[in-house]
Write a structure and sequence with these properties.
Length: about 450
């Protein structure tokens, strides 16, 4: 691709930023620009006008003000793992928080504060020495802030809810350049909106969350051949039907070392170990696995089990459907998807939502899908040299087959920018309140790179 040269507005903005910021400013032609515009999904190829690598909240404030003064659209990058690439807006200014990863733990108060670019591994690494764990997703490399803003399914959902359910306070730089605190007492409507309403309200520079006394858990990656998928998934259904809060079970499939799909079960028991000792017997009853067994493990090791699947630069397309229960029809679709996968790098990940997560009233946070359900993450991944269309088609067909069995809406963190009706359906009775909050804190819709509820937003920067 031919190198583009910064426009007059971009050059002027870059000069203004470089005189005021502690961090760096990159434009086309700078040696680090090409790497700075890349995100996790290798299918995303966008050229922002500038990338601002912020060093602190003050940098974010200056960057927002300069971008508005020069008429540059904004997007925000934390971990860079949004599959749709909304962190990088074509021709816009990227506020890159990836170097803002500091973490501070208050072990007595059982809280943790982290900057907007912190990854799950950063937070867990800081809390683990105190026998504490945050509620995050399932991969250490993924940014906590972006995950939390959309909800945050994870391995502790049954006992401690979603990531959003553990947010105490956030610092936010608004569209007018003001930095504010949002919590239950200060800017409470903004605090409400941040807990599942997405990144449309400002730049979150730090968060303070509850953490929990979790060290050793009962867990294990249990692997079965795909030929046993129906039996394994039915066994999984029997176990989760009466699962206590302490047990959350992730299941699905991914490609094995020889390229053939494997069905996996990843239970996490985070209660008293003696009370969970019969778990191994219940999973053994499903049938003899190829590998793996439930046993005591350090929770930090459990959270790292999928790290190797998150490879920077690998093209990806994702989809999401949620089902109330794993009926025989749903199980057949999942088993069929495993056999029909067009790439050994693709997978399905079925997240277990129950217990504490399901007891939060639907209007307490924007995340309204509070009934027990399974969130099915459809991940088509392939090598950069492959033609991606067949892999994309596989993901879309799996999603379509599940649609007639699915709950309304879908998980916003996995919905594409062209899926506005499903986003609105997910927010349910909270959609109107979100729109009003958006109008209050960002009336000019400066933060529109993330898919929003605004039907007039036709260029979401995807």
């Amino acid at each position: 691709m031919a190198m583009s040269h910064p426009s007059a507005a971009t050059a002027a903005a870059a000069r203004a930023l470089r005189t005021a910021l502690r961090g760096s400013v990159l434009v086309a032609g700078d040696s680090a620009y090409e790497s700075a515009r890349q995100v996790w999904n290798g299918a995303i190829d966008r050229r922002p006008a500038a990338v601002v690598r912020c060093a602190d909240e003050s940098d974010v404030v200056h960057a927002v003000r300069v971008a508005r003064h020069h008429g540059l659209p904004l997007s925000v990058r934390g971990g860079g793992h949004d599959w749709a690439g909304r962190a990088v807006r074509e021709g816009g200014l990227v506020l890159d928080l990836s170097e803002m990863r500091a973490v501070t733990v208050d072990p007595a108060g059982r809280t943790v504060q982290f900057q907007g670019g912190a990854r799950a591994g950063d937070v867990l690494g800081a809390t683990s020495p105190f026998g504490l764990a945050p509620v995050t997703g399932t991969v250490k490399a993924v940014g906590v802030t972006g995950l939390l803003l959309g909800g945050g399914y994870g391995l502790l959902a049954g006992r401690h809810g979603l990531a959003v359910d553990n947010l105490i306070e956030a610092r936010v730089v608004l569209a007018d350049g003001r930095a504010v605190t949002a919590n239950a007492a200060e800017n409470p409507d903004l605090y409400w909106a941040l807990r599942g309403g997405g990144g449309n309200f400002g730049v979150v520079t730090s968060m303070r969350c509850r953490v929990h006394p979790i060290g050793t858990v009962l867990s294990g990656m249990i692997l079965h051949p795909a030929e046993r998928a129906v039996d394994v998934l039915r066994g999984h259904r029997d176990i989760i039907a009466d699962a206590p809060d302490e047990l959350t079970v992730l299941t699905g499939f991914f490609g094995g070392p020889d390229g053939r799909p494997l069905i996996f079960l990843l239970p996490v028991w985070c209660g008293e170990l003696e009370q969970g000792r019969d778990l191994a017997d219940r999973f053994d009853a499903i049938g003899k696995p190829l590998a793996g067994r439930v046993c005591p493990m350090d929770y930090a090791n459990v959270l790292g089990m999928f790290d190797q699947a998150v490879v920077d630069g690998r093209p990806t397309e994702m989809g999401t459907r949620s089902v109330a229960e794993p009926t025989d029809e749903v199980i057949d679709i999942l088993a069929g998807a495993a056999h029909e996968a067009t790439s050994p790098l693709s997978g399905l990940y079925v997240h277990h939502f129950h217990g504490a997560a399901s007891r939060v009233p639907e209007t307490d946070t924007p995340f309204a899908t509070r009934r027990d359900h399974l969130q099915i993450e459809i991940a088509a991944c392939w090598e950069p040299a492959d033609d991606g269309e067949k892999h994309r088609r596989w993901a879309r067909e799996v999603s379509q087959r599940l649609s007639e069995h699915a709950l309304p809406g879908g998980y916003p963190n996995l919905l594409g920018a062209d899926e506005l009706p499903r986003t609105v359906a997910h927010f349910g009775p909270n959609a109107d309140r979100l729109l009003k909050t958006k109008d209050r804190y960002d009336p000019d819709h400066v933060f529109s790179a993330v898919a929003s509820l605004d039907p007039t937003t036709t260029d979401p920067g995807d």
